[in-house]
Design goal:
With 875 residues, this protein is α/β, with parallel strands linked by helices. Among the domains are: 162 residues, no CATH class; 174 residues, 3-Layer(aba) Sandwich (Rossmann fold), CATH 3.40.50; 74 residues; 89 residues, Winged helix-like DNA-binding domain superfamily/Winged helix DNA-binding domain (Arc Repressor Mutant, subunit A, Orthogonal Bundle), CATH 1.10.10. It is built from 29 helices and 32 strands. Helix 3 packs antiparallel against helix 4, helix 11 packs parallel to helix 12 and helix 21 crosses helix 23. The relative contact order is 0.05.
Amino acid sequence: MVDAVVSYMVERLGDYLIREATFLGGVRSEAVSLKNDLEWMNCFIKDAEEKQVDNPLIRQWVSDIRDIAYDCEDVLDEFMIKVHDGEVTPDVLKAEGEESSKRSQRLLTSFKNSVAKSSRKGKEKVTTYNIGKQIEALKKRLSDVSRRRQEYGLENINVKREGESSAFGRLKQLRKTNSFSFEENVVGYKNETEKLLAKLLEDEPRRYVISIWGTGGLGKTTLAGKLYNNSAIKQKFHRCAWVSVSQDYNTQDLLGRIMKSFNSGNTTEKFETMSQDDMERCLHKSLQGCSYLVVIDDIWHKEAWASLKRAFPNNKNGSRVIITTRIKDVAERSDERTHVHELRFLNQEESWQLFCEKAFWNLNIDEGLEKLGREMVEKCGGLPLAIVVLGGLLSTKKPQEWNLVRDNIWRHLRNDSIQITQLLALSFNDLPYQLKLCFLYLSNFPEDFEIKTERLIRLWVAEGYIPHDEEIMEDVALNYLNELINRSLIQKGQMRFGMVGTCRVHDLLRDLAIQKAKELNLVQFYDELRNSAHSSKVSCRRLAIYSGMKGTLWLQQCNPLLRSLLFFDLYRDRPTVEQFIPTLCTRFRFLRVLEFERFIARSWSLPKDIDKLIHLKYLGLRDTVNIPESLLNLSNLETLHLPEELCGSGAFLPTEIWKLQSLRHLIGARTGPLRIDNMTNLQTLKTVRDDTWTKTNPETLVNLRELDLSVYYEREKKFTFDSIAKLKSIKILTVTLSNDHFFPTLQPLSYCRYLRHLCLTGKMEKLPGEMHVLLPNVESLWLAKSKLVDDPMPILEKMLNLTELILGYGCYSGKKMVCTAKGFPRLESLKLIMAKDLEEWQIEDGALPVLRGLQLSGYSQFKLPERLESVPLLP
């Protein structure tokens, strides 16, 4: 894990060397040397943690390096604060001939004004000499850590001593041992078993792969074992084999175990003496003319099956391969012919049935125990492994002890089962370092919290977890999010515009993230309602306050070097918090992230000292707030998230908001005109009123990707899409008409070639007949209050790339809809809301071929077409 922190710090050092070269001046070479030393040291850390995690000397060694990495960040950030405060002598600006830059000139002027002021206060001047001494001290500490490797015999850190066994190795052996210890009576997955069994037994002669994927502990191995041991399977296939792969596999070893499995453990043939090529030829020859089934359990990399499949002939006699994996990409790309099955979580009744089989075999169920049991089972979130361990644990407890388990459920499960934590930890350990930090950041959020993915992405960017390269950081962060979803570490929530709109973390995985973050001294949280404060270490860098602030005494004791401060629910503590906010801006000056999720009902004011937070990149204010002009001094601010509901007078922003040139996301309802013309870095603008938009030159907003525009009153008559057509990067567009006027022609939108998601709320005389030509790339379409008289389906079904369609309240007032053959070829999600007059919906054969989700609301007398009865209903 520490490799993630050190790698992150190496990247930050690189960023400083590029962005702050002017100020680092004569110590630039020392900073480069420090960066190189950290990179060199990081080469040893990962193996040290994985292979000798139980060695206390190793743990201390990597802990020392972690602390040095944190201190590197502190030295650089503190230096920039002193630069901002004018505590730097002007000679620092003369470095490397860059004094003529515009930025240096502006700062030089402000420094001259502030140096005299700071001198009167007796403040110490800071020069490059001072920071140079601090960097030299850090380099010496790294040198001492390196020396201690030799003193304590850690020079062969990557070589495991005789007799030592890593946690990873023990778990790997545990998986091999338990590969065939399947439950005879498996609860749940009846339909899945029947469906996959039919795929295995069907007449298709070509060999193909069936991939079962899902999170650790979901029952992939159990389901594969249920199929493997089915009597019909034994009758169909001449040869059957099972092999468990895991992360650290050896192809030759796998081939040997498969050959032994095919031979029912007969080791008369000397497989051990064969080369890998000989094994492949021998196995291929032995399977000629046979129908075979092989289960490749627990694959982490698609190369594992690729390295084996040459040994398996395609006899065209119905042979099959079953793969189990936690990773979607591995499941989908294992073979050219693959049937992918994503294993679901157990539903409520299945979970309770499984629990009862484990917990009540020697206890009588009474009303009190059932209530406690159901409460704990719900916390397991449908994860079979957690339910089995919980049931087994409670079966050994007296009824009066159940309350104790309920109050600390995850601690009890960890203590009772070595397998449950280590199985989930495997997924974390397999992550590249960038994804490790992104996953650990999720420990900031409260239990069962529904996280908006856009918010999470912007927080990751603000924290510096996303590398600065040629790609747009938000796109890289979205890829990271999808990777964590595909690796079964994050669960999808609601969808928005055809994308994952919200996500959540299973409680067991959240507990794992908290545990790992605690080891890294990365996150702490405070929850007064539950009387809990996780990690009281003063050196933690991130703090989340879920509820309560008891006189703010606890926060006053926290680390002044905090980088992230998230308030989730302080509604009851308004007077106390209001008093503390001015102190916050002077005490926690290293903050990059500051957010108030739910604060107070009435208007409140940000302090003028907000501009002291010079490192601030993300500011989230979810209640009505008065914003001072000093906000415009936050030159690093990238996200400003205001309340999205327009309450009272709304949020008044300084009219010169354009001075925030680093701003990428300006979000929330607000009143009053704004000048945003030259905000060239702006990617998100929502919600903006037309009185601002009409005074804006859209051609200057070259990076704007999402626009939410509200058009009011008499200006609706003059509104056109001409200005929006000039937004060359626009991907998501929402336009709302507030009155009874009609939308003008959509023709100008044909120039928005990157437009993917369109939401229009307001009247339309009719849909353009050539809508599929005007908007060929639109994937998600939302129409509301359109008051269409003609059936919209004949026009919309021709939009070939449409995957999500929402016909909202008041969209269509007709009584009949028809979807013709081959209509909506790619539509996956369809929502029809409050079309009360609809009486008939005809769907011809071949229409909606890939529809996976359907939502109908507000229909009193309407019969669902038979063709759609099997489509899952969306919430």
